[in-house]
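User: I'm new to structure prediction. If I give you an amino acid sequence, what do you actually give back? Let's try with this one:
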Amino acid sequence: MKTFAKAFSTVGADSRWSRARRPEQKQVRREAILLAARDLIDREGVDRTTLSDIARRAHISKTNCYRYFENREAILLQVVLEETRDWTDAIVDGLSRLSGSGDFGAVSELLVRETLNRPRLCELASAMWTVLEQNVSVEVLANFKYEFRKTASQWTTSLIKALPSLSEDQAKQFSLFFLLFVASAWSACKHSPVLDQLLMREEFADTKVDLDSTLSTHTLALLKGLTIP
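Assistant: Good question. You get back a string of structure tokens that encode the predicted 3D arrangement of the chain. For your 229 residues, that looks like this:
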């Protein structure tokens, strides 16, 4: 990490990149692109994160970006994978302490907490199926799906150990339903200035969606509901 940080700071100080030839140089540029994308997602959201902005922030020409990624969506899908791996590591670690407990409440609380601690992942999830997966080649999508499924299987395995009453098929169902709901709920909680004004009116106050409580209620209900015969 220190090596990359040093290389990136050096490159960032000079926007005139020479062509990367060695593997380590290519890796530095690839990481610079991903770092720029992550920063822009945090600042602007997925919709306003453009390839031109990513290239500018990474101090790379837009043309050079295509040497490393097919397009903007391919970059963001790679960020999804990295964020998902980090999230999965935290989930697996937490579930290991709940192994055999059968404690639906504690498992639900862990999943919600670790998810909401990663707003970047939630933001990306809200666009994953509707935008990101719609605008890449079959090869890029196949690789993403393979890696994403491999990562997801790690936490579903740990989920079964923590909740022995949950079957493998039920755990897989939960994984899909949970991520779909996170994507939907995150979008529902992103308020435009107009919507904020509307929610200030008393007659619409009860339509405001609280992400934490909504996700907590849904997660616990879904986990318990899947085990009902």
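You can read the tokens as a compact description of the fold. Here is one thing that stands out. The chain is about 70% helix and 0% strand.
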